[in-house]
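Hi Y.,

Following your request, here is the sequence exactly as I used it, all 236 residues.
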Amino acid sequence: MNEHKLLIPGGGTPLKLLTKTLTDAPGKILVVGGMSELIAKRLQVKYKVNVELIVEDFESLLNANLILDYEENIIVKMMDFERTDYENDSFDLIFAQGTVSGGNRKKIIKEMKRILKPGGIFAVTEIVSAHETLPPVMKDLLEAAGISPLNEPDAEKYYQERNFTILASKDLPDALPEYYKSVQYVFEGKEEELTESEKSYYKKIIHRISHEGNVFLKYGGSKYISLKTMILKLAE
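Below is the corresponding structure, written out as tokens. Let me know if you'd prefer a different format.
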């Protein structure tokens, strides 16, 4: 699959920040969230270690295995992100791009801390709001998408209060407009340019977020909502 067709908020920027920050190969890697198959593959290629990917539902599990073609070095499992099946201190690196920004953030982060080794790395990309008070149309958009954004000025503090040290961070103000425009491109009659596996890859998200993207772009959502990616180290 071509990199420019990677439909995930933030694209490849969070991964680039991680690999620039983390030069030594971690022992065990976990990627959290559907639509992150190519992220898992690139991490496996970069660090040459086995990678596990967890998704929340059966359809995502099927799609992930299809996209990865049952890659032997990447294990895909279906789990509740709030209550995984892993033992304490299981991973050296956990990567979550846009998958912890819901109302259950606190529970997910608590679980990630449990399964992350002391001194381990948590690479997280959050949806953040530029203003504490958002217009009603933006509030409705976020509520419908199940998103509870952090206030951007407080995002780093949120993780510091949970025993993480900020190793690197980057604001991505243009990431969401680029993401929604990419989705519109795929949605508006471009399916013939995709392979069969790519069509399956996009099927789940296109219809879900096409309306969301129209609203975001029409009402200037980038003035209120953006992304922030952070490379965090858990206290030892």
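The CA atoms of residues 92 and 113 lie 11 Å apart.

Thanks again,
Q.
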